[in-house]
Amino acid sequence: MRKATIITTSIVGGVVAVALIAGSSFAVGAKVGHIANTAGFSQSGHSLEQSDRTMGDESPSWKTDRDGRGGHGSDHSETGEISGLDGGTLTGEQEATLSLMAEEEKVAHDLYIEFGDLYGDKVFGNIANAESNHLSAVQTLLERYELTDPTVGQAVGEFDSESMQELYDSLLAQGSESRDGAYEAARTVEKTDIRDLAAAADDATAPDVIVVYERLLAASEKHLTAFGG
Length: 229
Description:
Residues 1-80 have low confidence and may be disordered. It is built from ten helices and no strands. By secondary structure, the chain is mostly helical. The chain has helices spanning 2-13, 15-19, 21-38, 48-51, 78-83, 92-119, 122-144, 162-177, 179-203, 207-226. Helix 1 (2-13) packs antiparallel against helix 9 (179-203), helix 6 (92-119) runs antiparallel to helix 7 (122-144) and helix 8 packs antiparallel against helix 9. The protein is globular and about 45 Å long.
């Protein structure tokens, strides 16, 4: 399937894969802007940047520092934001992609938990918290579309799909060798997320799914910067 190929390419292609994102992200941004406006998200009253705060991510005034901190948003639930967006229908491939996105968010969360325990750098704990909120947003979509959540009942470091398990295991091994290795592994995670979210948003047709993907994409770009990317 297309999305499985994306994951493989992300791991093997590295930086080359990321270089392909710029044009796709621009097109996705325009697509999401239109949907956000028609769903009642005005640029002045409730822009996509402003709604990022509900996911536990940094505000638009976010500044990079070694802790990965910046202006933190409110504790409002992302579920409330999604409930205000129109739903749609998903193809079989789009359903598989949504499930995969849940596992990708869990990969990031679980790795950053492990690296935070190993090295004590606050950036890992702070961004792990954000990834937990991102996973909750995807889980809300899975519930809305009555899809099985592949992350339910999975312990830290355990994944339903073989590709995500292999990705996690390889990056955990890399990051366990040194602090520099952990930061490099984190950058790989975020680059993989950026590539896959951009492709997923470009392929999606349901308004609520597109908006969530776009917001996760923007967050991953910030996280990549926090990890030195």
